[in-house]
Amino acid sequence: MNEDWLQRPAAALDPAAGAAAEAHQRQLTKPPGALGRLEDLAIWLAARQASASPSCERVAICVFAADHGLAEAGVSAFPQAVTGEMVKNFARGGAAINVLARGLGARLEVVDLGCVNDPGPLADVQRVHLGPGTANALLGPAMTTEQCASALYAGRQAVQRALNTGAQLLLGGEMGIGNTASASACACALLGLPASALTGPGTGLDAAGVARKAAIVQQAVDRHAGAGDDPLEILRRLGGFEIAALTGSYIAAAQRGLPALVDGFITSVAALLAVRIQPTVRDWLLFAHRSAEPGHRRVLEALCAEPLLDLGLRLGEGSGAALAVPLLRQACALHRDMATFAEAGVSDTPTPS
């Protein structure tokens, strides 16, 4: 696998812009820290946009879709045909992320990387067909070296398209029956934890279904123990096309200086893979929400991440990240539009009690 571009470091932050934004926050007509994490968000964005007045108006959402050979073992409550059907639904504008993207005025792109139920070429869908989903990781590596490299590069290309439209923030989403199992397997290998600690209901399995799924995930992890702690090899053997594309997108976005808002469990596993491949990527990642998937907490801990929302979501598609965008926009608006003490003629000296 040609790993050269993956190893390039992330863009440098602008500490002067961050310091200027922090100083501006101290002059706004409020007690210091009164707006909590909204203040931190404005300062975080300022250092990454090299601007003391950051903005999140131009948002690019990219949903990567693909099937998983591991689904053949019965790790999902839904059949694999659903993935291709959902790609068609995205193209028609009928999915949750379509609704959320319209509400945000965000650019939405769907990338079809390979489905069992192949929807074929569709208007407004990028087709990067790498095969009818990955291979079954119980029987061998999920991807060939070439497929994994191509999926990673597809994420990089999606970032370039987003930048071409002037995006200020990237949101990654995913769709693929069986992808919580593949993500759990990757997380187990990365964190050295048993499948029972990281496997959840996904699309809605009952307790017996989760136990069966965890056993299958553990079998896959054990089969590919030879991957060691190499994140690229873990991804190739246990991951999925869309997980690889997300991983590539986070690396490419950080390299190009584009902040990324990470969605839920599967995207966070991709983020962990990206950070293990290139640690400087971490500085460019914000985390939108805490998923209802039980393994998400462990992955967030490994990334030292504190998400913005906790709404019990487990849909994927980038939906949780889209719901967090208004928080970032309001943080920027407060930072930009609130009066300073000097402008308002208000004393900024606390009165002794």
Can you offer a commentary on this structure?
By secondary structure, the protein is α/β, with parallel strands linked by helices. It has two domains: 5-53 and 335-344, Nicotinate-nucleotide-dimethylbenzimidazole phosphoribosyltransferase (CobT), small domain (5,6-Dimethylbenzimidazole Phosphoribosyltransferase, Chain: A, domain 1); 59-327, Nicotinate-nucleotide-dimethylbenzimidazole phosphoribosyltransferase (CobT), large domain (Rossmann fold), CATH 3.40.50. It contains 13 helices and six strands. The chain has helices at residues 15-27, 37-49, 81-92, 96-104, 145-164, 179-191, 207-223, 231-238, 241-255, 265-277, 295-302, 319-337, 341-344, and strands spanning 59-65, 107-112, 125-127, 169-175, 260-262, 285-287. Strands 3-2-1-4-5-6 form a six-stranded parallel β-sheet, sandwiched between helices. Helix 1 (15-27) runs antiparallel to helix 2, helix 2 (37-49) crosses helix 12 and helix 6 (179-191) runs antiparallel to helix 8 (231-238). It is globular and about 70 Å long. The model has no long low-confidence stretch (mean pLDDT 95).
